[in-house]
Amino acid sequence: MTDPNWLDEREQRAWRGFLAVNAAVRGRIARQLQQETGLSSADYAVLVSLSEAPGGRLRVFQLRVAADWEKTRLTHQITRMTARGLVAREPCADDPRGAFVVLTEAGWDAITAAAPRHVEHVRHWFFDALGPEHVDALIEVNEAVTRHLLSASEPCSPCSPCSPSSPGDVPSSCDDVLP
Amino acid sequence: MTDPNWLDEREQRAWRGFLAVNAAVRGRIARQLQQETGLSSADYAVLVSLSEAPGGRLRVFQLRVAADWEKTRLTHQITRMTARGLVAREPCADDPRGAFVVLTEAGWDAITAAAPRHVEHVRHWFFDALGPEHVDALIEVNEAVTRHLLSASEPCSPCSPCSPSSPGDVPSSCDDVLP
């Protein structure tokens, strides 16, 4: 076995900064949002994803893709948000083990009230630090990594279809079974 | 109240990419590391922080700063890692409510075995996507945000001192009480 190809000093700075800055910015925004609205950053991410989906409705695997969470974490998150009335579960017409998550009226109210505060915090903690050249550079880095992740990903295996129970552009997939 | 200053299309791309790319890269590395070593990314982050500290020992608030986690999450994490024998708790000489977390021999073994795999994944999922100009740009963005976060942070309030129970450069602070 060859020796590990450890990161050099410049790579360490880039990698550790990539992790630490992201965590710090998310942490500051999350704490302010929680204090002001009672929503955690996880609540907010789910509400945003649903609010942008047709009919405020997504299958669980779609939320999972958006948030890149482990399935167990997302399942618990949805259970808690359902108990608080922010989202509801709807059965999947074609797949008795599948499910949709849909935004409730209380969920819409919560995201509508929180979004203006959230964007203020994003500007304060993130964009206020950056010049236009930083923003352009960041977009380039993000897109280079995204292309790489997509090209290096395993292909998705085929699975059972599921039509939405109301109109909307919802593709089918597996791995979205709620307990 | 003025209208929210919503992000424009370019800012959206930068902000959403900042969140999504980070989550995706961390997710891929975490899943591989978990499969290969049984360590979660949270385990790994704690082990790395401790392994780099003098004597493999930190007060809890120092781990918290490194990982930018909520206190409850870190407390649970340390409880689980203690039960698995990866870290141990040591009382704080000057503060009966304070505590150190220290790497055990099993913890050293775990991080020593995992680190070469981890760096391989970081190269595969992250650096393989980037040219030198991307790395430089990322460092600049990270450092601009870091400077801004530091200048915008609230000053730390004074609190009770705590000397390390063995030699090492451990500063004092509050907010590191274990249950």
From TrEMBL, chains A, B:
It comes from the Bacteria. InterPro entries: HTH_MarR-typ (IPR000835), MarR/SlyA-like (IPR039422), WH-like_DNA-bd_sf (IPR036388), WH_DNA-bd_sf (IPR036390). SUPFAM superfamilies: Winged helix' DNA-binding domain. Residues 160-179 are annotated as: Disordered. Residues 11-147 form the HTH marR-type domain. Coiled coil: none annotated. PANTHER family: MARR FAMILY REGULATORY PROTEIN, TRANSCRIPTIONAL REGULATOR, MARR FAMILY. This is MarR family transcriptional regulator. It comes from Dactylosporangium maewongense.
